[in-house]
């Protein structure tokens, strides 16, 4: 194990000692490069206790809301200073393009500045109550210790979507990153001490889902679980939350439709379709993995998308000219290839790709499948890879029916030059986010989340901070009058 970079967790403001470690692999080189702590229930309990103590006593609860906001602003400055180094760690750990990771790291400070500004805008209200002589008002208070569980595809961005609002609201946190990409999170949490956050406000644990994840979400002192990941994991988290009556936010998967009407600008639509599925090697929950195209432009659009797909350069994700990086895990690559084999056996045709390139690393070729019907598994299940299923339709009614005929409802794209069609699509599509003549656009100001099996709650925007607050109702009788104790007042 010599030569491997060793990372450590942060618990109670100190570097935690690991009882055991496991290797993290570079998906491009296919070899171990880092050692990550392998935590268990004891380490989880220590982290939760540190977060619970910091929430209840000491500096953090004594801070004014404005002071919390200033800490988030300071953190944003430090992230800007460390953006390049953090992006490089993330690229090596999960194989995502350095160009994309660098862009994300440069954008992430905006979240902390936005929610830092919101920290002292959290307000209760005085109620014009119908009870004479009573003074009634509400307080908005933090929920407590939050378990933030994040996936491997964009760890620091998706962590930020949780951290920025929960800290602005006054909560404390225990972070559990994916065992497949923990390194950037462990490098990132070092910044909190430098920013001036009190010890125990931000803590981390790492390891396997059953050894560290399950004890974390079931810990009695965890008040809320904020989870981003796959549907199976979300169901398990939701079941635990229901059994223990915990607050919950779930951001899960999608099988999003990118719909192209015949009147669309085909060049723009083709660019948007490629961006929706091949960017990030399709390893994004909002991937536009179903292309619904009006039949009379089907061949012309597919030809354009195939031509664009052929130009995609795959290779070392650390090189800025690379456009397609490897799949993060061998297990995920096998999952994608199994779906492709089944689709071919059912009559699908690979207009582009469909296999593994003759290239080192855990790659899957950018793939475009035609001959797909909406009831095939490849069109219904999330592959989390660079695979596009093309499905033709005749008219708008059929397009929206096909788009909505899925258990998911995270996102949808619509390409058209008709404002009437645009607004009709916006009203009809059952998705938490709809892009018109655009795709894969996000902002710290814009709520992010899905309908149906794509999740519960919203991240980003002002809605996000509400998910980390609870309302306290306060009644005051200034006169302290004696009331009939046997009758509700």
UniProtKB/TrEMBL annotation:
Every Aldehyde dehydrogenase domain range? 20-474
Entry-linked InterPro entries: Ald_DH/histidinol_DH (IPR016161), Ald_DH_C (IPR016163), Ald_DH_CS_CYS (IPR016160), Ald_DH_CS_GLU (IPR029510), Ald_DH_N (IPR016162), Aldehyde_DH_dom (IPR015590)
Among its keywords, does the record have NADP? no
Keywords associated with the record? Oxidoreductase
- Which residues of this protein are catalytic? 251
Q: Does the keyword Manganese apply?
A: no
Q: Which CDD domains does the record associate with it?
A: ALDH_DhaS
- Per the UniProt record, one Pfam family is Aldedh
Known PANTHER family for this protein?
ALDEHYDE DEHYDROGENASE-RELATED
Q: Which family does it belong to?
A: Belongs to the aldehyde dehydrogenase family.
Q: What is this protein called?
A: Aldehyde dehydrogenase
């Amino acid at each position: 194990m010599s030569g491997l970079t060793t990372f450590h967790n942060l618990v109670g403001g100190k570097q935690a000692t690991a009882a055991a470690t496991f290797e993290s692999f570079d998906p491009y080189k296919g070899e171990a490069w880092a050692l990550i702590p392998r935590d268990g229930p004891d380490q989880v309990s220590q982290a939760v206790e540190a977060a619970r103590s910091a929430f209840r006593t000491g500096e953090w609860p004594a801070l004014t809301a404005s002071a919390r906001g200033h800490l988030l602003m300071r953190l944003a400055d430090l992230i800007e200073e460390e953006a390049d180094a953090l992006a490089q760690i993330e690229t090596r750990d999960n194989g995502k393009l350095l160009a994309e990771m660098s862009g994300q790291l440069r954008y992430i400070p905006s979240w902390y500045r936005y929610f830092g500004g919101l920290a002292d805008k959290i307000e209760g209200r005085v109620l014009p109550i119908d009870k004479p002589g009573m003074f009634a008002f509400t307080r908005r208070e933090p929920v407590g210790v939050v378990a933030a569980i994040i996936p491997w595809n964009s760890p620091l961005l998706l962590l930020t979507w949780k951290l920025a609002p929960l800290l602005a609201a006054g909560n404390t946190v225990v972070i559990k990153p994916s065992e497949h990409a923990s390194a950037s999170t462990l490098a990132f949490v070092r910044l909190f001490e430098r920013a001036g956050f009190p010890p125990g406000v931000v803590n981390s644990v790492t390891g396997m889902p059953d050894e560290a994840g399950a004890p974390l979400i079931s810990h009695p002192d965890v008040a809320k679980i904020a989870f981003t990941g796959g549907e199976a994991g979300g169901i398990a988290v939701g079941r635990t939350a229901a059994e223990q009556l915990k607050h919950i936010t779930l951001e899960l998967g999608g099988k999003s439709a990118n719909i192209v009407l015949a009147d669309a600008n085909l060049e723009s639509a083709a660019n948007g379709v490629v961006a929706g599925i091949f960017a990030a090697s399709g390893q994004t929950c909002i991937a536009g993995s179903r292309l619904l195209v009006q039949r009379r432009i089907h061949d012309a659009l597919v030809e354009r998308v195939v031509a664009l797909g052929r130009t995609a350069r795959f290779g070392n994700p650390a090189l800025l000219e690379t456009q397609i990086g490897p799949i993060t895990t061998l297990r995920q690559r096998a999952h994608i290839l199994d779906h492709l084999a089944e689709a071919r056996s059912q009559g699908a045709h690979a207009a582009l790709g469909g296999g593994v390139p003759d290239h080192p690393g855990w790659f899957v070729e950018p793939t475009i499948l035609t001959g797909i019907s909406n009831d095939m598994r490849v069109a219904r299940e999330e592959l989390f890879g660079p695979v596009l299923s093309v499905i033709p339709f005749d008219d708008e009614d059929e397009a929206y029916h096909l788009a909505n005929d899925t258990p998911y409802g995270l996102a949808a794209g619509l390409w058209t030059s008709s404002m009437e069609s645009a607004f009709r699509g916006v009203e009809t599509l059952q998705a938490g986010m709809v892009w018109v003549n655009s795709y894969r656009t996000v902002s710290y100001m814009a709520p992010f989340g899905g309908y149906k099996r794509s999740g519960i709650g919203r991240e980003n925007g002002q809605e996000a901070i509400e998910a980390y607050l609870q309302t306290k109702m306060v009644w005051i009788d200034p006169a302290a009058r004696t009331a009939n104790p046997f009758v509700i007042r």
